[in-house]
């Protein structure tokens, strides 16, 4: 099969190589781009993550050929969605961040950060979760999730006997669950501990 026949039969990769071998003969180099474009389109339409990643490379390499720039964005968006569905939130976030204001990428980015923070929280990495929730405080219930992290950290400190630290964290947790009551309790226990240690002035300021 010659290059044109390969192209017509959808064997774009082989057709591209055949046209490249023709050097500067007629429109061979233009046909190379056409083959690379059609191969990238085929990969985009396949839709699986591996194909999408290859399609992104293909369209990016084609620069401003046809609608390659627009298709690069479409593919990046699809890659972001695929990573999100697979639970690879950091990879998904990278794609949506790169896309900036394309479609609803900014909202998708917030979704990724939220999901990543939620996964960290469930895995016991509460401090890291708190940092991520705080970066998207205006998204969904992220602000309350920040207070939830502070509450969880406060409970850890309380259980470890660090009542002063726990009190401060409960204070930051505001009205989350019974944080206000626990704050009062931890303040009292801190005061008792200070009194027992002979620090009466400090204990007095806490009662």
Q: Any chance you could write out the topology, listing elements then pairs?
A:
Layout: H1 3-8, H2 12-21, H3 28-46, H4 49-62, H5 68-85, H6 89-99, H7 105-122, H8 126-135, H9 142-159, H10 163-172, H11 179-196, H12 200-206
Helix pairs in contact: 2-3, 3-4, 4-5, 5-6, 6-7, 7-8, 8-9, 9-10, 10-11, 11-12
In words, what does this structure look like?
There is one protein chain. The protein has 207 residues and is an all-alpha fold. Helix content is 77%, strand content 0%. The protein has 12 helices and no strands. It has helices spanning 3-8, 12-21, 28-46, 49-62, 68-85, 89-99, 105-122, 126-135, 142-159, 163-172, 179-196, 200-206. Helix 5 (68-85) packs antiparallel against helix 6 and helix 8 packs antiparallel against helix 9. The mean pLDDT is 86.
In DSSP terms, counting alpha (H) and pi (I) runs of 4 or more, how many helices? 12
Provide the structure class: mainly alpha
* First-last Cα distance: 91 Å
Described by the principal axes of the CA atoms, the overall outline is rod-shaped
Low-confidence stretches: none
Gyration radius, to the nearest Å?
29 Å
The number of E-state strands comes to 0
Q: Average pLDDT across residues? A: 86
Largest sheet: none
Helix content: over 70%
- Secondary-structure element order, as H and E? HHHHHHHHHHHH
